Amino acid sequence: MVDIEVIAVGGYNEVGRNMTAVRVGKEIVIFDIGLYLDPITGNNNVDMENMHSLDLIQMGAIPDDTVMNSVEGTVKAIVCTHGHLDHIGAIQKLAHRYNCPIISTPYTNELIKQQIEGERKFSVMNKTFALKAGGKYTISQNLTLEFVRVQHSIIDSVMAVLHTPVGCVVYANDFKFDMTPVIGEAPDLARMREIGKEGVKVLIVESLNLDDRGYSPSEQVARLRVRDAIMRCEDDKNAIIVSTFASQIARIKTITECAREIDRIPVLLGRSMERYNTTAEILKQVAFPQGTSIYGNRKTTDRMLRRVLKEGKDKFLLVATGHQGEPGSMLSRIALGETPLKIERGDKVMFSANIIPNPTNYAQRAEVDRLLMRQGARIFDGLHVTGHAYYQEHYDLLSMLNPEHIIPSHGPFAMKGGYVALGSEFGYTLNKEVHIMQNGDRLVLPK
Amino acid sequence: MVDIEVIAVGGYNEVGRNMTAVRVGKEIVIFDIGLYLDPITGNNNVDMENMHSLDLIQMGAIPDDTVMNSVEGTVKAIVCTHGHLDHIGAIQKLAHRYNCPIISTPYTNELIKQQIEGERKFSVMNKTFALKAGGKYTISQNLTLEFVRVQHSIIDSVMAVLHTPVGCVVYANDFKFDMTPVIGEAPDLARMREIGKEGVKVLIVESLNLDDRGYSPSEQVARLRVRDAIMRCEDDKNAIIVSTFASQIARIKTITECAREIDRIPVLLGRSMERYNTTAEILKQVAFPQGTSIYGNRKTTDRMLRRVLKEGKDKFLLVATGHQGEPGSMLSRIALGETPLKIERGDKVMFSANIIPNPTNYAQRAEVDRLLMRQGARIFDGLHVTGHAYYQEHYDLLSMLNPEHIIPSHGPFAMKGGYVALGSEFGYTLNKEVHIMQNGDRLVLPK
Amino acid sequence: MVDIEVIAVGGYNEVGRNMTAVRVGKEIVIFDIGLYLDPITGNNNVDMENMHSLDLIQMGAIPDDTVMNSVEGTVKAIVCTHGHLDHIGAIQKLAHRYNCPIISTPYTNELIKQQIEGERKFSVMNKTFALKAGGKYTISQNLTLEFVRVQHSIIDSVMAVLHTPVGCVVYANDFKFDMTPVIGEAPDLARMREIGKEGVKVLIVESLNLDDRGYSPSEQVARLRVRDAIMRCEDDKNAIIVSTFASQIARIKTITECAREIDRIPVLLGRSMERYNTTAEILKQVAFPQGTSIYGNRKTTDRMLRRVLKEGKDKFLLVATGHQGEPGSMLSRIALGETPLKIERGDKVMFSANIIPNPTNYAQRAEVDRLLMRQGARIFDGLHVTGHAYYQEHYDLLSMLNPEHIIPSHGPFAMKGGYVALGSEFGYTLNKEVHIMQNGDRLVLPK
Amino acid sequence: MVDIEVIAVGGYNEVGRNMTAVRVGKEIVIFDIGLYLDPITGNNNVDMENMHSLDLIQMGAIPDDTVMNSVEGTVKAIVCTHGHLDHIGAIQKLAHRYNCPIISTPYTNELIKQQIEGERKFSVMNKTFALKAGGKYTISQNLTLEFVRVQHSIIDSVMAVLHTPVGCVVYANDFKFDMTPVIGEAPDLARMREIGKEGVKVLIVESLNLDDRGYSPSEQVARLRVRDAIMRCEDDKNAIIVSTFASQIARIKTITECAREIDRIPVLLGRSMERYNTTAEILKQVAFPQGTSIYGNRKTTDRMLRRVLKEGKDKFLLVATGHQGEPGSMLSRIALGETPLKIERGDKVMFSANIIPNPTNYAQRAEVDRLLMRQGARIFDGLHVTGHAYYQEHYDLLSMLNPEHIIPSHGPFAMKGGYVALGSEFGYTLNKEVHIMQNGDRLVLPK
């Protein structure tokens, strides 16, 4: 019988640069190769596109996959569960070391291809393969990959299930069980229950929100709140600027639809807005209301803003990058008066995003808020819901999958305590069935 | 021309025991006579029904209305804007000192009458008068009272507007601008705008949530979250217990309706559940789904719980008191094993309430949670929204009313800082138009 | 060669009920048998003295030592490192199950004997043996116990070192490296370095304050702050009441000496004050200034307080129990007006203690503070330092001992994260050399 | 009889840019003209030395003294109580508008002169006058200024007392009642009591630390902690770098003395280190141990660091700027590897400073800490005490001065709540005797 080994490459000491390798006998599958932004955020001189992977590893910005050198086996596939940077953002730096295809859902696949195209240092020749949620992919005689539909704060997210001769390996990063999503269908719990019955050898699972009791709020809650805030502006003459994650396509759909409801033209502004949303549109994963326009670069965005000034702020609703106060983002530039649009008293700036907890983000957002408020802007905050499951969703997950082993991932040591507590509710014991790993650790599962 | 004096009797140093008197010439109107629970919560020996008002004043539990002795004028009316205890809970102790009617909305009026009936120390002979939201009441030649519809965490809440020869006195405790409420209609903003045009001399206004930016979430958000949590239990065999504020009729309506959707019989348990909800039903302000039953005292609740055991936990959904961990409440008794219902692994306890911030509440709730979890209960928390307006709702309020003077109320000194900041956005100056008062203070408004 | 197994009996999921067993071949040594107060604090009906150990285990109040039934070997000794209840407080309930002596420092030994005498349910026949800091005790041919001097918030605290044929087992609960203590000598770092050179197989070590960077403040800091607060009262006519941990003998020595400096008679009040301090005096481990008196029971304390009233509050300085707001403590009784001493405006109440983090303590202390302040007392808070080492003291410890294995103890899972991080600074790897255990876990150390 | 008017120019909405004017009849005295760093910190492009005051006013960085235009009277003196930038840092931008001398203590006076010399935009011709603590200065027939000795986190700090025909105006920004200071004598409480008896018309007083109960810790506590941390390094071979406020002369004295105790040469590094400490030395207000050297500019500091490398890190103790992670500071440069000194494993970096609460500071310090720790540095934090009085020191202040009126200053609205509460303990009433002012407010004191 083949043995299974889990190699915790990245994302086990931090929230970011996720990468987990699973060896089944002599065959290896890699899940996610992501980026960790923190070591880069505070550092203005990083030119990532031209940097060597070893330097980025040394900075702590990408997974240290040198551990893979000592793992005996052949990497057969790289699998990405969704398109966030902390899951795909280092592919262009590391994938070329592995002679294997990169498998992901269609939307994720497009983002990965763009990632690879933008790379300046390495040429990445891996094939990319788009596997739909619900689909299966035969990796080898022994290994079949299956994508099970979940929900997350980006479209086309899946739970990856690796069928092996000794049971399933379930990689559940990142997910929430949103039963009333805004885009796509609810997570496929029925399939999860079946997989649970087939037998799960090990569950590798995020551990971000275990401290939050209950279920995470549905995207419908964000929709309700965003809609409420926008609908009250029906008679407003002021500007409305909404900032949200560029990759949060469902949210942006909501925002653009609400814009139309109050007869404003939705305009998406900013480079990442353009990239994520145009890609989603092309793949027909979202349809924005007619008249929605998207502008990415400084020239086109500023031209659009001049048009806004000319035709009237009350004719448009702007969806802009910059919710983390990122220097150079649309909102930062607006706050600093670097665009044609000047903030006036009563203009509304809505944040449909949380601040990603990190001192630099707090500082940059505080500065943007201060500048906006000085100019008379009205700030609306908190029109957001998380994309990560809460405690009771993980409870349901364990109930359905009934795994033999659990490896909490995606976060530092302390965060995993939630899974130790949850596991103990089901009779799992730390170190026997619940395994706490750190970056670089390897664990051969007991048979 | 008559002068206007505002007397801050209670609720200006704390969140509780609200009472404000407004003297217009020789005539006085009192707004609210409420209770402050904190000095009582930590003290097991308080038998409030039999206590003298002076002792309760000395404890700090009810407003110190001895300041009224020195105010020259006649109290013409006591006006209550809604039925929460911090607004009506000391009426039975103080109203008899004033020879005047007590005016409130129909639901509030019933609660006040019950309050008076339960009193053992004083006999309160004041007439009570039910004035509907939107209605007017002529207090005297000079004074007319108007109730403007708002929303709050209890039904039948209003903003009180006192029309005087020198402009309106607006008493806005407590409210939120929920534009998509679950019971009743949205706040009457049109009327507020009119009143603003007629001229508002002074706005007396709560200042609880000014630190929260944006708009407060609609009750629809709570509905969505409660419904989501309950709907997921469709195939559960476990008990479902939901605890919420007994006076939160809209929430209880939501809960009972969701119970029916998953074919469970809703049962309301606990003395205050019975009082608030039966009263609302009798007044036809709410209609619970058919089959909903309500039990108040220990004998009937425990008999009901025996029936639950017999017929199956999965046949019922229990709505229970005890979200603050109050000793003697339904949930505390269940947690302690003092009822026929025993908690088993997988039973769900949902809290559709926040913990009212106070060390005793935190301690008591922590103990209830600990006991429930030891017995295997699954805790769902945070299925709740506030009943108090956020910063931007107050911004809208000021925009509509355009008052000459602002007196932030309902909270200690520091809480009022939000109104100083907000006021300054509109050009109001501290001490000139924004007045910070403390319990016992009197302020004659500049003409 | 003998093998070493560590059994995590209690204190690995919580801060409290510490108990660790170490099996060396066929011989077992137990370190600490402590109490966990939290499950008892919130529960008024616990009569611990008359309770059976199995009931206390079921409540979670004492270590669940049933795991010991399956450990093959003979318990040769119970070793306690200091006299706090979370280390010795369950001896009277569990020690009789083991036919072996209880070894501890002289002061700890006296407290253990009192503990056993007060027991009503079990008769504990174990011999007790007092071993001085710096001393050794031959447990068996293979095992020798050594006590190395440390400092902690109670006098006569040691680090226990078990010399075995395969290296030392170091049990370091609880300690700080206070190099300028108020009572006793500084920790014996020289001996620790020697032990490190002899070879440490495993270090079992508290993990409470790893989040605090630097070194913990010396008791001299507390002395400075207490002295400063008291010396400023030189000309005061008001009462001075200082509340501190009854077992914090060094602090009480400081307080009583400062009392004398401003010509006040120090009076210790409260049952635990009497127990811990009289014991320390009898053992000559402390000498309080002449004239210091101690009263334990209600009759004598209240008689003393009447004398204070008669002779003048400014003649005395009272050292009282009650810093956690415990019901029935001296300070609670004073706050409630249940003693002859009435608080008047300007009376000073000084807290030379932290609030032990727990919702019940916060609630009870808040209520005592509220009552005292209502009566005009001036509250002085924070005249305290911790008894537990900070991050850099643990760094020094690792530098000196250079252990093969590390087992962080004394706290829940998340708290141990500090030791994972610290360990990684020294090249220790999680699960290989740093072992995270939970109550009931057993670990045979790799050879 | 003359009337007294207080004009709150700056520092009443924020902690920074302090400036208060007091008009006594036709004569005006200005207290402090300070800088507010927050609007500048987040903004890299500010070249303050060349900026116009009106632009700095518009940014919110310096007091908006245009309010002074409408005050009828002649400014007779500018008085500064100590040399921190939030009290003297805008003198060079605003003082030239007033034809009067600038009076301050000798050390403060030197700093002001340097401030003026560095100015590039305005030429400031005001005379500066050094008045020692305890001294008096006759401003006019009606007005005499007196400096009463206090303690603060910079040497030569005083409370300013303006004797007027209708009583004293006491300006108490900033102070603590450190009765056991490290440099200088304890505050002159005896003189304060006398002034209280002479009669205090109004007390203008900081309100920063009212939430902290008890007394603020003495500088001796910081000394104890710094000394403890340094003394433990006696046998270390590693670098020791201590960062503290450059103006905290007493702390730096402590650090340099401790360096000598372990036979290391103290070296002060950084521009502000040089400025504040050389000035203090020249004025003979401090004597550093023999051999202490100070280097300000990049060339000399880096030359010194090369010498450190050559002669051995263990021969020196470096006192460096950069505790707030300021870009360009010594510590930031060291952390970034921009100096000859490379951090190695075990090098110690001690922070004898708090992080000034502000998102930018938190972010910058976090980044410096991260960089240092990556290189193996050991971080020691919290070796610091505040320079601002706690609640009970303010209690003592009120007891001694017994002022007719109180104006809390130096902080935003909410911070002043502490003085409302404290005042009420003495029978002061909000708006009657305790006055809450905002920037730009004017208050004529009732007679």
Automatic annotation (TrEMBL), chains A, B, C, D:
Cofactor binding description: Binds 2 Zn(2+) ions per subunit. It is not clear if Zn(2+) or Mg(2+) is physiologically important.
List of residues binding Zn(2+) 1: 82, 84, 152, 174
GO CC terms in record: cytoplasm
GO molecular function: 5'-3' RNA exonuclease activity; RNA binding; zinc ion binding
Binding site for Zn(2+) 2: 86-87, 174, 410
Main location: cytoplasm
Domain Metallo-beta-lactamase: start-end pairs: 16-230
E.C. numbers: 3.1.-.-
Catalytic class of the enzyme: hydrolase
Pfam families according to UniProt: Lactamase_B_2, RMMBL, RNase_J_b_CASP
Family to which the UniProt record says this protein belongs: Belongs to the metallo-beta-lactamase superfamily. RNA-metabolizing metallo-beta-lactamase-like family. Archaeal RNase J subfamily.
Function recorded in the entry: An RNase that has 5'-3' exonuclease activity. May be involved in RNA degradation.
Assembly behavior: Homodimer.
UniProt protein name: Ribonuclease J
